[in-house]
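Reviewers of the previous submission asked for a worked example of the structure-prediction workflow described in the proposal, so we include one complete record here. The input consisted solely of the amino acid sequence. No template or homolog information was supplied to the procedure at any stage.
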Amino acid sequence: MGCTIVIALIITLSLDTKAKQNEQNKLGNWEKEVTIKLADRNIVGTISAPDSEQFSLVILLPGVGSHDRDYVLFGKPFFKDMADYLHQNGIASFRFDRPAGETDHLKMTIREQAENVEQIACILLEEFPKISQIGILGHSQGGMIATIVASHSPKVTFIILVGTPAVKGVDYNLDYERSMAEIQGLSDDQIAGIQKFQREVFDVVLQNESKKSIEILQEMYTELKPRRSQQRINATIHRITSDWFKFNLKYKPDQYFMKIKCPVLAIYGEYDRQIPPSQNIAALRTILTKNENLTVEIVTLLSHNHLFQISETGNPYEYEKIESTFSQQFLNTVSDWIRRLKNLQERT
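From that input alone, the workflow returned the following structure tokens.
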């Protein structure tokens, strides 16, 4: 998965750019719509950059699912707002579409997505010589992809993990189920029952091939009380027996962090109910003791939810009600760290 292989393939790939001038921009920033042609798909996105001799560029990776380049959640363009803020502070970014028709996330594992991102990084460096360093910012699952890329590619000079799991795949899925059950106000006994059932489900998925797993899970979910509709059962089983979900269950972050040599910024929200900060920060600190070459800055932002909005409780039901996208404090944390890193590297 190394960049040397990717660069050899650039002869058969192409990169088309169409300049779109950034209107009324006092800092002289610019945007380009970019199409990167990989072997099996086109990656279409936008580069936003300052008009300077050299600049740092950040590839922005969203969480689970199909998203447009602006990472619109609940009608709010999270990555568009971030790109605007970054290039106003002298930092470039690349954000791209991940539509359902082109990239079915249930078919592509995060390792396969990481291979695409590594190719994107290498091609951007080749085609835009003004990029002095390239990094990756990944939100939630996007951070897992960033971790995998950084463990393989020397071209990636930093990564920023935003609300990203640092515990093993089975554990973070169980943590998520527990957190969602607590939000619903379920009793400790009810939560324990859900956790027991989920562990049994994960064991079936991990210990059997897909056809056998589907047969066993159909029986397990059919007997589950309260009764679910067959449509809901089928959708659940399709999801958890997919290549994407099975890879997530097997995910062991330490095996990737052990190979990372570039600086890492890990940001967690105090009220994140999807990726609870305490257990993930503890896991990350344990990993740090095993890799002396790894430099990680860990930041917890008070009163922030999983989308890094300022929140009263972190309950996902609040996401839509909060008017803003990423908070100013979050954006400041990201941009200040990148600029400090750039200044440090320029002095060494």
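Residues 150 and 260 are 6 Å apart (CA to CA). We consider this example representative of the routine output the project will generate in years two and three.
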